[in-house]
Amino acid sequence: MDSPVEVTGPCNLGNPHEVPIKEIASLVLRQTGSRSRIEHRPLPHDDPKRRQPAITRARELLGWSPQVALEEGLRTTIDYFSLQLCTPAAASSLAATRLRIELGGGKAQRCRPVSARGAGRALEARN
Predict the structure, then answer these.
(1) Within a domain: residue 39?
(2) Is 118 in contact with 76 (CB distance < 8 Å)?
């Protein structure tokens, strides 16, 4: 990262707007069209109840602040990985051959990006 020489040490990067993990999981299910269920499990005893990064240092020293809304970032990420899983190279890899997307009747679903617009952005990013 290009930063002034006098800027040393870590800077938190994140969004200080807290979003419950349940809301993020629901967004992922909606955007992917998944029929998966959300499972509720007990938190580990040392898990923080709230996460809100302090990004003041990043704003002051680097002029950085979050620019992408959560839903847009999720859509871009989903489209990118959808495209990665649908390429010939991915299809021939061992990991991809173990990955089978199946419909209720046991028929394999044809691999395609979640959205054409997002796949185009992901393809541009790869080139």
Answers:
(1) no
(2) yes
Quick one: 94 and 122 in the same domain?
yes
> 84 is in which domain, residue-wise?
70-127
- Let me know whether 92 and 111 are in one domain: yes
For residue 56, tell me if it sits in a domain: yes
Spatial distance between the Cα atoms of 37 and 95, rounded to a whole number of angstroms: 24
CA 54 to chain CA mean position, Å: 21
Q: Is 42 within the bounds of a domain?
A: no
Q: What is the mean pLDDT of each run of 10 residues along the chain (127 residues)?
A: 76 89 92 90 86 89 91 91 74 44 39 48 47
pTM of the model: 0.61
Residues 6+ apart with CB under 8 A from 58: 11, 12, 13, 64, 65
